[in-house]
Amino acid sequence: MDRIRVASLQYFVRPVARFEDFQAQVEGLVETAADYNVQLLVFPEYFTLQLLTLADTRRPIPEQIFGLAAESERFIGMMSRLSQKHGLYICGGTIPVYANGRSTVRNESFLFGPSGTYFSQGKIHMTRFESEEWFVSAGDHLRVFQTSFGRLAITICYDVEFPELARVAARAGADMLLVPSCTDDRQGFVRVRYCAHARAIENQLYAIHASTVGSLPMVPAVSLNYGQAAILTPSDFPFARDGVLAEGEPNLETMVIGELNLATLRESRENGTVLPLRDSQHTEDVARSLDEVSL
I want to staple 114 with a disulfide (CB 3.0 to 4.6 A). Which of 32, 65, 87, 137 is the partner? Predict the structure, then answer.
């Protein structure tokens, strides 16, 4: 499969009175993606925090995050059914899940296949508020997902700011990097967006960035959101101008759709104007011979 249509969400977080309200919003977006013949749909990080409004939002935030993990099984079942019903791949953003015998939680992203099967990628680098205020534990491995159209990896928000992860994934054959994110202000958003684009250029791969928008004023964790979804490409002649295949208007609820040519991507890794993925091996050799001098 050389061409694939993908979609990335600017997902509007809003209070919900029942799980069914959340489910209806998610189902509507998946159905819309299916109507546009999308084969891969990416939800943003922590869009599931909507579900915190089902309980007492005045509780300490760590209690709320641990409570949200109790919804993970129902969430996974819903997303698995939707991916199977509509025959598409869904990156289900993230949701806290229990770890270490329910003594801690991790921030996990689940990739669902058209058959309803799924695997997860845990967030590896915690932001300060996640580790210091929410007590979310870090993941410890990177996974490359084999799909019907090729390989991809998931770097969750802050993780995309660490080039080593994307480089390892690209060396393992990943053509796409999924970047579900949740950022409260423009500075945080820009860190993720610019790093996602840098990873696309460095590794000659596509980066699909999904963001939360809207707010839950009663939940300190997401009282603000700044987001803009984008489908990012390498910067070379066969690709989009400025390396941006598609992007939304910041902070509006929308779905960004684009068609990726995987054959063109693979050709660029062999015959591009520059070959940063191949040539990075030389950089690593030079770095191992680092000299230190004093003047």
Answer: 87
Residue 167: pLDDT band with limits 50, 70, 90 = very high
Catalytic annotation present for 63: no
Among candidate residues 91, 108, 157, 182, the one labeled active-site is 157
Q: Is 45 a catalytic residue?
A: yes
Residue 83 sits at the vertex; the CA angle it makes with 11 and 259, to the nearest 5 degrees, is: 65
DSSP β-bridge partners for residue 122: 108
pLDDT tens digits for 52-66? 999 999 899 899 999
CATH number for the domain including 18? Answer: 3.60.110.10
Total structural domains within the chain: 1
Pairing of strands 206-214, 3-13: parallel
Residue among 71, 123, 130, 195 flagged as catalytic: 123
Our answer to whether residue 195 is catalytic in this structure is no
Q: Domain residues for 77?
A: 3-288
Rounded Cα distance, 28 and 4, in Å? 21
Question: Can you read off the two tokens belonging to residue 206?
Answer: 């596509």
Query: If you write DSSP's letter for every residue of 160-178 in order, what string do you get?
Result: GG-HHHHHHHHHTTEEEEE
Contact 26, 274 (CB under 8 A): no
Q: How many other C-beta atoms are found inside a 10 Å radius of the C-beta of residue 74?
A: 13
Whether the pTM exceeds 0.85: the reply is yes
pLDDT digits (tens, 9 = 90+) for 95-129: 999 998 888 999 999 999 999 999 999 999 999 99
C-alpha distances out from residue 45 to 79, 104, 195, 215, Å: 15, 19, 16, 14
Residue at 295 is within a domain: no
